[in-house]
Structure formats: structure tokens, C-alpha cells
């Protein structure tokens, strides 16, 4: 969490901007110095505001807040680098949400491995309203992740992330191999 910076000097001291009648008044100068201590961090944030909006430069706790702006649900167990990259690419990932490509890119960002996806695919239709749905196999997605060290991949974390990305009725299987 961010906090005040000790000995931060205000770039615009209030005491220097007072009318000349107050420049020699000790109380006014002490009072405005106290206000400068309160206002200096605000100036610092405003001067660096563009950096706060870039997830690669923003403070770590602000990245989580930015994730809410881009409708991204971050898992606290992901590393700071992964969370920053996901927020930075959120708009791009939203374009492909619900697609094989979007799922593959999301899993790749979390694991760094090669991702192959096989799904049952397609759409089922019926010529009669409220008729039986054609086909017999339920929707299923098989995700194969190839990484140098499969033991280093947190399967529970990846499974939870995948479950958030696929429709609720779709069964998923995740295989992590070398």
C-alpha cells in the first residue's frame, strides 16, 4: 500500500504564494508548511498520473484497482508480473473471450507454456421448437499445456482460471506435460 513520502518537498509551496503581508508572519508560514506536507503527495500523484494508468508502471495495489476498471477478475495468488500483464492485455483478451484463441492466450500468460486446445466445438440446432437437441456428446474442452517443468504449474490455480473463462456447461480437462 502506498503512503506518504518523508521529507517530500512541495513543488508549489503555499507560503511563497501568499500576499506580502503574510510572508513575515511566522504562524502563517508554519501553517502553510503543514498544508504543503499534506498537498505535496497529491502533486506527486498528479504529476505521475499517466504512470498510474499503465499497469506495467503503476503501484501494485493500484494494478488490482485497474483490473476492476477493465472487468478483469484477478487471483491474488498470481505473481505481480502476471497480474500486470493480464491487466495490460485485458482489452485484447476481452476481444477473444469465449474463443479458443482467447482461452489459449490467457492460459499462456499464466503458465508461459505452449497451449493446445481441443474442443467439441460447433453449435447444435433443432428444426422443431423445444425438440431434442441433436448430437450426443456434451460440450468439452481439452487443454494441453506444455512447459519445461510440469511440477511448477499450479494446476488448481490454472483450473480455477479456466473455469472462469469457459461457459458453465462446458466440461474441461487440463493436461500439463513437457
TrEMBL record:
InterPro entries documented for this protein: Tail_protein_I, Unchr_phage_tail-like
Pfam families according to UniProt: Tail_P2_I
Domain of life: Bacteria
Name of the protein this chain belongs to: Phage tail protein
Origin organism lineage: Bacteria, Bacillati, Actinomycetota, Actinomycetes, Pseudonocardiales
Amino acid at each position: 500500500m502506498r503512503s506518504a513520502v518523508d521529507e517530500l518537498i512541495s513543488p508549489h509551496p503555499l507560503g511563497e504564494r501568499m500576499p506580502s503581508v503574510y510572508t513575515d508572519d511566522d504562524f502563517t508560514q508554519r501553517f502553510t508548511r503543514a498544508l504543503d506536507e499534506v498537498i505535496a503527495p497529491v502533486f506527486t500523484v498528479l504529476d505521475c498520473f499517466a504512470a498510474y494508468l499503465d499497469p506495467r508502471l503503476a503501484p501494485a495495489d493500484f494494478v488490482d484497482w485497474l483490473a476492476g476498471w477493465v472487468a478483469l477478475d484477478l487471483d491474488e495468488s498470481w505473481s505481480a508480473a502476471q497480474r500486470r500483464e493480464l491487466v495490460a492485455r485485458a482489452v485484447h483478451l476481452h476481444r477473444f473471450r469465449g474463443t479458443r484463441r482467447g482461452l489459449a492466450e490467457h492460459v499462456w500468460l499464466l503458465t508461459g507454456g505452449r497451449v493446445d486446445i481441443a474442443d467439441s466445438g460447433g453449435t447444435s440446432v433443432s428444426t422443431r421448437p423445444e425438440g431434442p437437441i441433436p448430437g450426443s456428446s456434451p460440450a468439452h474442452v481439452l487443454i494441453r499445456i506444455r512447459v519445461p517443468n510440469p511440477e511448477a504449474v499450479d494446476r488448481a490455480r490454472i483450473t480455477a482460471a479456466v473455469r472462469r473463462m469457459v461457459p458453465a456447461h462446458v466440461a474441461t480437462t487440463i493436461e500439463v506435460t513437457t
